[in-house]
Amino acid sequence: MDSTELKTLQAPLKARYKDDATAAIVTLKARGTLDDQSIACKVETGRALEMAGLHPATGGSGAELCSGDMLLEALVACAGVTLKAVATALEFRLGNATVEAEGDLDFRGTLGVAKDAPVGFQSIRLNFHLDTDEPQERIDALLKLTERYCVVFQTINTKPELTVTAA
Q: H/E element holding 123?
């Protein structure tokens, strides 16, 4: 897809959302079912059923997906798609590119070993490896726009309002 095709595809959506802001609000959903045999949750991905379980650092076997890894994978997926869309829109000459995310966890927090140890990622690093001959100012603009428009990055960065309920 080139810049013209992308703009043609998105133009009616942008016009609709400018005219009716409520049309731009979409509720995404995820669903999981707790496994009755192990400490795991079957997550429906839309394409497959994936089993998430405990990370080996908390007693898991490593056979199931770790939700922390899944969070980083969601960040990589979103950042990669966003980078590609921004590069396309900017007509940025982009050869091969890879995206990597890594994050640091102190599992003492999630295991309740140390009350002062945080639960969750203490830091996350998102790295892009770009094969391009574009000047540095264009690369900087690409990264700035990717950061600005990546849904997962911005969600982690700004902390949305969260609620927890049981029915």
A: strand 121-130
